[in-house]
Amino acid sequence: MPIKTYTGAAAFPVDTADDVTALVELLGRAATDERLRNDLGDHFAFVAGTRPEWFRPHQEAVVTGFLDGFDVTFDNLCVLLNGAPDRCVEHLERRLRSRWSYPEAWALAAIGTEAALTAIAGLVRDGADPGKEFEDSGIWTPATGPAQYRFTPHRQAVELQTVSDPAELLTADHPVGLPLDQVVRRPEATPAVWHYLSLRLDQLPGMPDWSADRVHLASPKGSVGWTLTAAAGPDGLWHDETIAFDEPPRDDETEVDNSDPRGTGIAVLRQYDSDLAYSNGHILSTPGLVGTAGGPPIGLYPNPHCRSCDRLMFHVVTVQNYIREYGHGWRTLYLCEQCQITTCTATNWN
Ligand SMILES: [Zn+2]
Questions:
Q1: How far is the CA of 7 from the centre of ligand 1 (A)?
Q2: Measured between alpha carbons, how far is residue 204 from residues 65, 109, 177, 280, 321 in Å?
Q3: How far does the centroid of ligand 1 lie from the alpha carbon of residue 309, in Å?
């Protein structure tokens, strides 16, 4: 079984719906047993990736009784708790109004129904979420109406494959290492120096409307802690790029040359299934995998707002810098479909 827990191999079978029931029945004990809680978290990540329908009958019992033992990452929660009954929403909202707790906020955020999004908007407007936990999870509360998901819960794994002929990049759906003249309108005047990845949005279910076929993820000079924003024309090419750094890049920052064929390849989008390795709540120990398209942002950092309309931007993809070795940490692409603006960020591992 492709579950690798912190302590080694999978501890429990996950072959039938009854096996998932047995996992749920262990959650009470897991509340006071950290090792069991971690092990179960990996098993539930596997359930989220392979047979989420087996978890559906347990949504209410887990939300109302066993969240303390349910240590599951937010992207997996968004699959397992998606569409949970309104009774779950009422329970969580009542609890959060009396005392804020992250596990309950994440559970409410993961449900994604109209009732849940209305409850979130009420909590945010009443000041119940001072740490902006919902917004960091990718949920935007506008001035009126329910909150909005600025991501799709539908995830696909990003696998890197090498190519023998660089010409293959020009016709690939999701190239890694494109020439900059395929990414920006003015290669001689752009702050972008390194292309990581372009994606065809029509192959990502749940993404917003976008005028161009592809969206791009590229880097300025700088290892980590930057935000690169650009308007995208109907041809997808960037213009009016702006850049912000958490701290100014160092003078001795490594120079890179995007025309270097090093690390060029193509990305392939894979369904979550039992061929991936589930470990530590994620799938990145699967050979060749470098990230996830779709799903929520990683949630450790504030997500960018659109520079033009200020709406929270829509999360497209997050990959490790290993997709095309430069800098370090996570590389994330967001967009505002209303303004046709993209923002790329580089954040540290944690
Ligand atoms: Zn906008």
A1: 45
A2: 35, 22, 20, 25, 21
A3: 4
Q: Cα–Cα distance between 312 and 303 in angstroms, integer?
A: 7
Give pLDDT tens digits for 85-111.
999 999 999 999 999 999 999 999 999
Tokens of 196: 């990581």
Residue 270 near residue 292 (C-beta atoms within 8 A): no
Distance 148 CA to ligand 1 centre (A): 14
Separation of CA 305 and ligand 1 centre (Å): 8
CA of 314 to the centre of ligand 1 (A): 10
On the question of pLDDT at 170 being above 90, the answer is no
**Domain extents in the chain:** 3-149, 155-347
187 Cα to the center of ligand 1, angstroms: 24
Angle of CA points 263, 264, 265, to nearest 5°: 115
Say if residues 268 and 159 touch (Cβ distance below 8 Å): yes
User: 9 falls in which pLDDT band (50, 70, 90)?
Assistant: low
Q: What pLDDT is recorded for position 260?
A: 85
CA triple 145-136-290, angle to 5 deg: 125
d(CA 337, ligand 1 centre) in Å:
7
- Distance (angstroms) between ligand 1 centre and the Cα of 1 equals 44
Backbone phi, psi, residue 241, to 5°: -70, 140
Query: What confidence tens digit (pLDDT) does each residue in 220-243 have?
Result: 999 999 999 999 999 999 999 999
Q: How far is the CA of 338 from the centre of ligand 1 (A)?
A: 5
* pLDDT over threshold 90, residue 217: yes
User: In angstroms, what is the span from residue 323 Cα to ligand 1's centroid?
Assistant: 28
Beta pairing class for 330-336 and 341-347: antiparallel
How much of the chain is helix, strand and coil, in % rounded to 5?
Answer: 30, 25, 45
CA of residue 336 to ligand 1 center, whole Å: 5
Q: How far is the CA of 340 from the centre of ligand 1 (A)?
A: 7
**Rounded average pLDDT over 137-152:** 97
The predicted-structure confidence for 112-130, as pLDDT tens digits, reads as follows 999 999 999 999 999 999 8
Distance 126 CA to ligand 1 centre (A): 25
